[in-house]
Amino acid sequence: MNRTYNTLFMIESLDGKISTGDVDELDVDKDFKKIHGIKEGLFQYYNIEKNTDLFSLNSGRVMSKIGVNTRQDNPIKIECNFIIIDDNHLNINGVEYLAKWVKTLYLVTSNKNHPVFSIKNKFPNIEIIFYDQKIDFINLFSKLKTDFHIKNITIQTGGTLNALFVRLGLIDAVSIVVAPCLIGGSQTQSLIGGESLHSQLELSNIKALKLKKCNVLKNSYIHLLYEVVNKTKVD
């Protein structure tokens, strides 16, 4: 394979929601900890997360939601490396916080005025991957393997990017922790969002899955692991 091996790893409700609502202040990581019947088994998701790949791909929007742009504490350095896709959600404080927090910060952007450029010399653990027009994700995952020798990546982005990666055939496995709850909401982010399919000709965008593992966890949680069949055949 001439690119990284990518696993989509998320926690979702039974109805497939990866957020608790349609505004940034509502967030699974913050809100599930408060809800009786859900909070008791949440630790299992974080335990599984600790055993994922040492390279984690996420978005600037998600990082902004968890508050890196305004944090003033000095984070404890972790061994994980972050690959962050961002054009306009992170400020200087957010980039500095991430650089202090992770082993290596790979900042992927098509914004030539991104604040990462102004502090690059201050942090030797920042790698900037710049695209002049639009981020080419097929090229990105190939570059991460060939130029930076990264083999495996855990992806934890939002529904829009998840959909893009799936439809480009860039997701190889899906590891899902299903929380025992129903959230609902037509505007609440789902595991796979993006543009809906509009015709029979687009059925090839649907990816079949092969179940590799199903673990029933404590407190009514479930962990599912699938292999993605990226070459879709349609009769």
Structure write-up:
This protein is of the alpha/beta class and 235 residues long. It has a single domain, classed as Dihydrofolate Reductase, subunit A. The protein is 21% helix and 24% strand. The chain is built from 7 helices and 9 strands; from the N terminus they run βααβαβαβαβαβαβββ. It has helices spanning 28-31, 43-49, 60-65, 92-101, 116-119, 137-146, 159-167, and strands spanning 5-13, 55-59, 81-85, 105-109, 126-130, 152-155, 173-179, 208-216, 222-229. The chain has a 9-stranded mixed β-sheet with strand order 5-4-3-2-6-1-7-9-8. Strand 8 (208-216) and strand 9 (222-229) form a beta hairpin. The chain is globular. The two termini are 27 Å apart. 31% of the residues are buried. The mean pLDDT is 96.
